Amino acid sequence: MRRYVEQLSRADSLLAQTLERVPLLPRPPLAAEWLRCEMLERHQVLRHAGLSRGLRVLEVGSGGHAITTVPLALEVGSEGKVVAVERSRWGIFQDVVDASGLAERVRPLKADALALPLRHDSHDLAVCAHGIRSLESLENMVAVFREMLRVAPRVLVAESLPLAQNDAQRAHLETYNLREEIFEAATGRKDDLHYLPLETLEGLVRKAGGEVERAETLEVDLPHALAYLPRDALSSISDRPKRERLLVRWEKAREMGERFGTDHPPVGLVLARRKAAERGAASGRPGRHAAGTERPHHR
Ligand SMILES: C[S@@+](CC[C@H](N)C(=O)[O-])C[C@H]1O[C@@H](n2cnc3c(N)ncnc32)[C@H](O)[C@@H]1O
Question: Which atom of ligand 1 is nearest to the CA of 88?
């Protein structure tokens, strides 16, 4: 957590105060500050994208810890709003948002991003940060980006890239790349897909009707706490040869992690706007799936 503390000491006071309100979550082997550290990473990404105050932002795939939601709420300021869409994993979302002091800017919405119950252009910007990995397939990614571009004229897509510039990033990729196969072998469901190259992300956004304005790579220089799975996670894999192959890779990843630590790989950012043709065609038209209403999520 040395780099987290260093970066925090250089951060502006509003960010530092907000992160200090976020609960510490002791979850060995993770440091208790892991959630704050991940939020700092998301904040770097959002700052790099240059969000402005007062925006109405739709966030897709907010997850159970509001890791992107809190820095988004900070960046849009007191005049802005964040609608945080999540299909299923609410976890401690509301507790974290409440603790951050920014709950008035955040509206949780339980919905499937493949069919958002939101009106065309009801938001200024739609964001999916570190959530693309959970969208299960390339087809879903395109469909979700298309929905984002219907609900807002601009989108920001950010995700880790399959690139490593040092041993700690290599250790992260070795660890992270086990997740897709372990989840699929153990549960049959898709999650934490391998990271995609920046050009692929750009291509998916274009296919969804976006005109790419900026596509960039960002180095965040922070540890990545979340990729690790305990050895037990492999025990329910019934295909024995597969389990043994994965165990060999798990051991290698663990050794690398212990030796070098695990760092965030470079993050790819794609900022895009709805293509002119789609802007014309879409204007005034009710959304493909939109009911025209927003359903707030109640815990
Ligand atoms: C990696 S997690 C959380 C990402 C979070 N933004 C962050 O900064 O870490 C991605 C989330 O997307 C959610 N998700 C996946 N597909 C979805 C869909 N079609 N609609 C809404 N949420 C979805 C998953 O349930 C998961 O909680």
Answer: 25
The residues pairing with 64 across neighbouring beta strands, listed in sequence order, are none
User: Nearest 5°: CA angle at 212, between 160 and 139?
Assistant: 60
Distance 111 CA to ligand 1 centre (A): 11
C-alpha pair distances (Å), 3 with each of 9, 32, 81, 185, 272: 10, 15, 30, 35, 31
Q: What angle do CA 123, 273, 159 make, to 5 degrees?
A: 85
61-91 pLDDT, tens digit each: 999 999 999 999 999 999 999 999 999 999 9
Domains, in order of start, for the chain: 2-161+196-223+265-278 (3.40.50.150), 165-190+228-261 (no CATH)
Question: Tell me, what DSSP letter sits at residue 132?
Answer: G
For residue 260, how many other CB atoms are within 10 A of its CB?
15
Q: What is the pLDDT of residues 249-288, one digit of tens each?
A: 999 999 999 999 999 999 999 999 999 877 666 554 444 4
Q: Where are the beta strands (DSSP E) in 41-153?
A: 56-60, 81-86, 106-110, 125-129
Omega before residue 23 within 30° of 0, cis:
no
Q: Which of 43, 86, 106, 132 most suits a substitution to test ligand 1, by most atoms within 8 Å of the C-beta?
A: 86
